[in-house]
Amino acid sequence: MASSSSSNAQEDQVLVEEKSFARTLILNRPKQLNAASYHMISRLLELFLLYEKDSNVKLVILKGKGRAFCAGGDVAAVMRDINNGRWKSGAIFFRTEFTLNYLMATYSKPQVSILNGIVMGGGAGCSIHGSFRVATENSVFAMPETALGLFPDVGASYFLSRLPGHFGEYLGLTGARLDGAEMLACGLATHFVPSAKLPSLEAALHTVDSSDQAIISAIIGEYSELPMLKGQSSYHRLDVINRCFSRRTVEDILSALEREATNKVDDWILASIQSLKKASPTSLKISLRSIREGRLQGVGQCLVREYRMVCHVMQGEVSKDFVEGCRAILVDKDRNPKWEPPRLDLLSDKMVDKYFSEVDDEGWEDLKLPPRSNLPASAIAKL
User: Is the separation of the CB atoms in 208 and 59 below 8 Å?
Assistant: First the structure.
């Protein structure tokens, strides 16, 4: 009896609503801010594959229950696997998650993600790759991985590297938060709809008998607004961001920011410096290289490389910062991680190179992404 109730509980992590040609998938772990568990990701992958083949489904809507869309992947579960000497179980989690990211990036039908709340890490991976991302006044976006001893994964090296200028390096290295207006301005969101209008928008989408992107875009456009960026928005600092975050190394970026800080007193610059100094040095170095490589790669290549990287992170040969970051931020919550190596200058190029190489472990293989066919032009452009 227990097994059936637990399988129901797993099924309940993704609720499904069917309205004529639309399927709405609701991430349903509100107490955990809809953190994406292995079961949730597997279920999403199963449903997205099913709907792509089903001619009665014209569009997929994805949203979260409660005050989050999805606050990230369930890394606490991965950390338990690593601590129990089973990092390869963690690898299965990431393999499934990255396959879902790839499917969404190359999906043949419109995906409308309603980001009415927190969208971080793995939550961004489940939405930003899709065709439509609707932000609201409640949206909070971040890729906070460097503070956890990880790096922006889930194909973030693809989408961060394509933001204006070097805004992607800024977001990926500092873990800075954006609101809905900023998400729209930089292109992470395609539309901004006030949350009060979401029920009407969803009702309109339920009546659509088409997978035509232009038709879906026009419908969302009817409920959209152009919000004002707040005066203190980091997006107003794009010139400083481009000057500093275009530098070749993390050390050069920090020096450039510190030079800016001596020229004028600016809390935003000081906060950026502080974020970089608190983050894992290993994470910063591999993240910068990952985003830079991502600029020249298709989304599939990015995910294959990120899978290598995340396996090295879990294996912990160069650094065990991921376990330490999870301990300090998620488990003990002392927010005082002891990074090892503790300083940027103690990380050699050879140590960084290791993260980008194949993993030397029996039975390990590179991420194999599913073959995709009959893709729309929007998906082909990402390959």
Answer: yes
DSSP alpha helix (H) spans, the chain: 2-11, 38-53, 75-83, 87-105, 122-125, 156-159, 167-174, 180-186, 198-206, 213-223, 238-245, 250-263, 267-278, 281-294, 299-315, 321-326, 349-354, 377-380
Bridge partners, 114 (sequence order): 63, 134
Taking residue 1's Cβ as centre, other Cβ atoms within 10 Å add up to 5
Angle at CA of residue 344, ends 308 and 323, nearest 5°: 50
List CB contacts of 204: < 8 A, sequence separation 6 or more. Answer: 219, 222, 223
* Cα 271-275-281 angle, rounded to 5 deg: 150
Q: Which of 115, 101, 94 is nearest to 158 (CA)?
A: 101
Q: In what order do the strands lie in the sheet with 118-120?
A: 68-70, 118-120, 140-142, 178-179
Q: Which residues touch 196 (CB under 8 Å, ≥6 apart)?
A: none
Containing 368, the helix (H) or strand (E) segment is none
User: What span, in angstroms and rounded, lies between the C-alpha atoms of 18 and 220?
Assistant: 19
List active site positions.
Answer: 73, 122, 145, 153
Q: What is the pLDDT along the chain (383 residues), one digit of tens a residue?
A: 333 444 566 669 999 999 999 999 999 999 999 999 999 999 999 999 999 999 999 999 999 999 999 999 998 899 999 999 999 999 999 999 999 999 999 999 999 999 999 999 999 999 999 999 999 999 999 999 999 999 999 999 999 999 999 999 999 999 999 999 999 999 999 999 999 999 999 999 999 999 999 999 999 999 999 999 999 999 999 999 999 999 999 999 999 999 999 988 889 999 999 999 999 999 999 999 999 999 999 999 999 999 999 999 999 999 999 999 999 998 899 999 999 999 999 999 999 999 999 999 999 999 999 999 888 888 888 98
Nearest to 152 by CA among 279, 27, 244, 239: 279
